[in-house]
């Protein structure tokens, strides 16, 4: 199972989180977010990593040319689209970045959102389901209604996000079988400052599941 820790801003925290067992780090490329990092800050983290893991840039309603430029400048392996990007936009980006993993994040408000999610399966590599918040795009600490995801079984891999913490992760994984999980505010002291003790606790609890 993939484990993505999102909202990385500091090289030493990225390195420690990679050593603890994360398979992906996420970097917020949305300027309005308190976790925003510039392409050169991302590159500094990416180049300091002790082992090769996925480095995912999180964008929301950005121009595709801007995404391509930032992905190259920062050294990303993957692009997460967390805004209102259409399937057509994803397809265009797929052609522009053929080597890169494209993840489409959907903020799930009602069960109908899951029908919309599957319309992206032909044009992205991975789906990501996050909680809906009326003002914020992500990093909200709000959980999804996991019950409505029980039957969700798309034809491509999907990550569960939204308010996951070391305290609720085992409950989530008892209820659902995502291809991976994504945590941000549930393992941080303040926006962009990760709590390494909480990340270590997460992997300790996941270890009891034999999740790999
Ligand atoms: O974290 C942010 O600030 C952010 C800003 C804009 C779009 C997405 C953002 N984060 C994403 O939110 C989810 C879950 O966060 P949380 O665990 O509930 O705090 C995750 O996919 C982040 O990539």
TrEMBL record:
Enzyme Commission number: 5.3.1.24
Annotated SUPFAM superfamilies: Ribulose-phoshate binding barrel
Catalytic activity: N-(5-phospho-beta-D-ribosyl)anthranilate = 1-(2-carboxyphenylamino)-1-deoxy-D-ribulose 5-phosphate
Residues annotated as domain N-(5'phosphoribosyl) anthranilate isomerase (PRAI): 3-204
Biological pathway: Amino-acid biosynthesis; L-tryptophan biosynthesis; L-tryptophan from chorismate: step 3/5
A single BP term in Gene Ontology: L-tryptophan biosynthetic process
Domain of life: Bacteria
Pfam families named in the record: PRAI
GO molecular function, one term: phosphoribosylanthranilate isomerase activity
Keywords in alphabetical order: Amino-acid biosynthesis, Aromatic amino acid biosynthesis, Isomerase, Tryptophan biosynthesis
Matching Gene3D superfamilies: Aldolase class I
CDD domains the UniProt entry points to: PRAI (cd00405)
Transmembrane segments: none
Family named by the database record: Belongs to the TrpF family.
Protein's name according to its UniProt entry: N-(5'-phosphoribosyl)anthranilate isomerase
Species whose genome carries this gene: Allocoleopsis franciscana PCC 7113
